[in-house]
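Researcher: I'm preparing a figure for a lab meeting and need a structural model of a single chain. I don't have an experimental structure, so a prediction will have to do for now. The sequence is pasted below. Please return the structure as tokens so I can convert it later.
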Amino acid sequence: MATILAAQSTDKLINTVTPTLFARFPDATALAAAEPAELETLIHSTGFFRMKAKHLLGMARAVVERHGGQIPSTMAELVALPGVARKTANVVLGTAFGKAEGVVVDTHVTRLAARLGLTSETDPVKIELDLQALLPRSEWVSFPNRLIWHGRRVCFAKKPACETCALAALCPAAELPAHGTAAG
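Model: Understood. Here is the structure written out token by token.
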């Protein structure tokens, strides 16, 4: 649920909404029986709440109907659910099942992979393929998590903190005050 809600929203906001949502709808069966209006009210602050409610209800109903109420554990089954694309499927597979089927590509991973020169692609699927080719499969779950945290704490979208970044010397996009130009 949280990953579907996270689209076009901040993790901080999603973390304020999900406790109430999870308490009210603790499993797929409960969520599948939700009234759309109630669900929309609970998730309104996340933005695009009507579409997100539609996806959440569709996902929950499909999980109940096709998988007996249990979240499926394969990429093919997950991406067949309403509102679930590769990013969400990769989050679920890696976090809930410990499976490295792919690499999560969110806005932080997209931004940092480009800045670090790991890809020249802009399409998330192509970025994922580039990262899979560069990384051992054992890193497919943890590497994007490290990029996400780095993007939240150091390599900000508008003004990266290159002067305090441990990766600056390796980063083609780093702008270090001492040099006044890109490092690399």
